[in-house]
Design goal:
One of its GO terms (cellular component) is cytoplasmic side of plasma membrane. It comes from Methanosarcina mazei (strain ATCC BAA-159 / DSM 3647 / Goe1 / Go1 / JCM 11833 / OCM 88) (Methanosarcina frisia). The chain is an alpha/beta fold and about 250 residues long. It has a single domain, classed as P-loop containing nucleotide triphosphate hydrolases (Rossmann fold, 3-Layer(aba) Sandwich), CATH 3.40.50. The chain contains ten helices and eight strands. It has helices spanning about 15-25, 45-50, 55-70, 80-90, 110-125, 140-145, 160-180, 195-205, 220-225, 240-250; strands at about 5-10, 35, 90-95, 95-100, 130-135, 150-160, 180-190, 210-215. An eight-stranded mixed beta sheet has the order 3-4-2-5-1-6-7-8, sandwiched between helices. Helix 1 (about 15-25) packs across helix 10, helix 3 (about 55-70) packs antiparallel against helix 4 (about 80-90) and helix 4 (about 80-90) packs across helix 5.
Amino acid sequence: MTKVIAITGKGGTGKTAVAALLIRSLSKKGQFILAVDADADTNLPETLGCENVKTIGDAKEFLQAEITKPRPDNPDMNKESVLQSKVYEIIEEMPGYDLLVMGRPEGSGCYCYVNNLLRGIMDKLVKNYDLVVIDAEAGLEHFSRKIIRDIDDLIVVTDASRRGFRTAERIHELVNELESNIGSIHVIANKVTDANREKLVKLAEELKLNLIGMIPLDPKIEEMDIKGIPLFEIPDDSVAAVEIENIVKKLGF
C-alpha cells in the first residue's frame, strides 16, 4: 500500500532541503519513490540535481487549449487519456526515484475541469509507488484543492525560533480546518544549535507539537549550496544526513 509524506513550512526554513534529504535517505532503503514538487517556486529539481524538467502546469495548459478546439474529426477525444499521457511524459526517471513537478499555478480561465481530471490521474499514479514524497506549498493550496487526496504523514519544517514554531502551530490548525485526509502531523526544527536545542524541545511541548526531529545547523549544506552541488550528494556523515536517518526511523522505515 502506498504511503504519502508531504513536507510544508514557510519560506526560508529549509523545507525543500529537508524534502530532498528525506528522498535521498528513503531511496537508499529500496523504496520505489515518486517525488512530487508541488511548490510553485519549483526548487526541488535543482536541489536533487535535475535540470530542464517539464511540469504538470504545462500539461494542464495544453489540455485546456485542446478542450476549446473544435474537433469535427474526433469529437469523442478522451481528455483524461490525453492528460494522463502528458503526465507520464513529464515524469523524470532518476536513480532511486521518479520526479513529477506540478509547476506554476493556473493562469487566466477556469481549470476546474482539468483539475478534476488530474485528481483521478494522480489517484491512479500514486498506486504505482511504495512511497510518495511531496514538497508542498506553505499555504497548503494543493491540499485544499485535493489534487492529492490522502496524506499519511504531514511534516512541517520550522526554523529554530518561537515565531517559526508558532507558524507550525497555525499550519496544524489550518489542516484541521480544511478537514483534509491527513493521518499524522509532525514538526522538524531545522538549523538547530546546541544553544537553543533544549528551549525548542520545551517550546514544542508547550504548543503540543509532535517534534519528530531537530536538524543541526550544517555548514556542509551551505557549502554545497554555494558551489551548486545537489544535496543528493551530501556525505552520509554530515550532521544533517545523520539526523534525517533518525527521522526516517521514527517515520517507520
